[in-house]
Amino acid sequence: MTSAVVQLISLVSFGNEFLKEGILSKDFYTDKNFQDDNIKFIDFEKSIVTRLVREVIIAGDPDKWFAFLKKDGCKSLKILFQYSSDNPNRDYALSSFVGGGGMWLIEAVYENYSNYWTSKWEVISKKPDPTIWSVKYGAVAKKQPKSSPDLNLIEAKKELLEILDSISNFAYKYTFPYWGNAFKKASSNLNNPNPTISINRIIEKNYSSVAKQILFSVEAAWVFGGMASWNDWSFDDKEVNKQYNELTKKLYDVIVRSIVASINSEHYPLIA
Fold first, then answer.
1. Least enclosed by CB within 10 Å: which of 71, 106, 150, 186?
2. Which comes out higher in pLDDT, residue 41 or 85?
């Protein structure tokens, strides 16, 4: 997965634990995504005099943001995804680029409404270290209706199994065995009795085995990157190329829906 998606997942999972317990797990900052001080949380303030909107930093790091949310009356956090408004059918092809692949949001759920936050990533250094990025999370919509579950875990697992079976068959037939094996591995993860999520991304005790199996599978199935990645392929045969694009788009669609279903499942135990 991209760093932006991984960071959102961690913020939602660890943030929910903080909102419930009032304590941030010591494991949170061992994740490489949070080892620098270039993550800020901002609000937007309009000047009464000039009418110009300016950014106001409300938290200079995640734990201060969690504390702000708790004090503000936030009950829980959820992760959401929205397709690009200009070309949603190409999100899968652009998912490896910063700002591409659709919009990921954090929903801060209050008693009677929700606020929605999203991130903006900017390069601040050319050095290949954690300080290369500056990330700002901003509240882009306030006091809006709460979201409702789009997909439950049973449906998500079924959709993943179906697309991984179809795309692995295609990969074995038209590409190198490496890709077919990758999709088969992702599929087998859905039935792993002891799914292992990458360390420190989530508070595992808050998720069912099915939710963790889905995340375990999605990690292996995320094949969207730059050159030489799965979404960098093309085929001379128009029909084969069409099938490849359709399968790849469906894989991306199912993956993002599955991430949302698994991470938000702790709020919907009856369908988990």
1. 71
2. 41
Phi-psi region of 28 (alpha: psi -120 to 50; beta: other; left: phi over 0): alpha
Confidence of residue 272 (pLDDT cuts 50, 70, 90): very low
Task: Tokens for 223, please give them.
Answer: 């094949």
The answer to whether the pTM exceeds 0.85 is yes
> Is pLDDT larger for residue 4 or for residue 113?
113
